[in-house]
Amino acid sequence: MELHVIGRSSPYAGPGEATVGYVVAEENTHLILECGSGVIAKYLERYNLADLEGVMISHLHPDHCADLFPLGFAIKHAQMQGLREERVPLLLPPGGIDILNGVLALLGGLGAHYREVFDYEEYGPKDPVILGYWQAHFHRVDHGMNCHGVVIKGAKGQKLGYTGDTKMGPELVEFFQGTDLLLCEATVESEEQGESTGHLTAEQAGKLGAAAEAKELVLTHFLPGVDEDKKKLLASRHFSGQVTIAEADKVYSIG
Ligand SMILES: [Zn+2]
Hints:
Elements: E1 2-7, E2 21-26, E3 29-35, H1 39-46, E4 52-56, H2 62-65, H3 68-80, E5 88-92, H4 96-106, H5 111-115, E6 118-122, E7 129-131, E8 134-142, E9 146-153, E10 159-162, H6 170-175, E11 181-185, H7 191-197, H8 202-211, E12 216-220, H9 228-236, E13 242-245, E14 251-253
Parallel strand pairs: 3-4, 4-5, 5-6, 10-11, 11-12, 12-13
Antiparallel strand pairs: 1-2, 1-14, 2-3, 7-8, 8-9, 9-10
The structure holds zinc ion.
């Protein structure tokens, strides 16, 4: 199982960047995990929509979901060209379908168009969702809006943890326990800022990775121009395994 970073910026993308978007791939099939602005043009450079098993969105802040709109048109175009027939499963947080349909209705009555390309589903904290090779377990995190972290298990039992956007909480350690790779947001510079905005510092990301006994830690969700080396250093104070910064086009092999 591989994790491919498409973009990692937030809340907007700098020149040539994308906001958050990742691809989870196994053999010739893949998932899109997060779909922020700028993600789809970069995604289409490398991937074929015929091989897309599904899309997962942690929450509906624009830096995580804005490119669902162009993705819907790209899927429609692929259907019209005969590249794929079936709709793409789109996994949203609870309440997400009504929100998306409401927005689409306001944007010129596009709801029917998107129902032809997406198979909407709302995940919950109890039942895992199975998509292709993967089993996804979701957990509500503390971000001031309905946001979920996810643990994605691969065919061989490999575990990818992804925090979504969240402030620190003790339940995170249990949820992400034993992940092979933890993709962890490290947005803010101080714990006070994190408490008020619902985000983590790089030091908290390091502590979470260590407490959850993750094998590898990848930091993400940065303001453009941030001091990446400092974030890596701060996380490494607490996490003794490999810490890397999510960079566009970087590919991680998991398990
Ligand atoms: Zn957010």
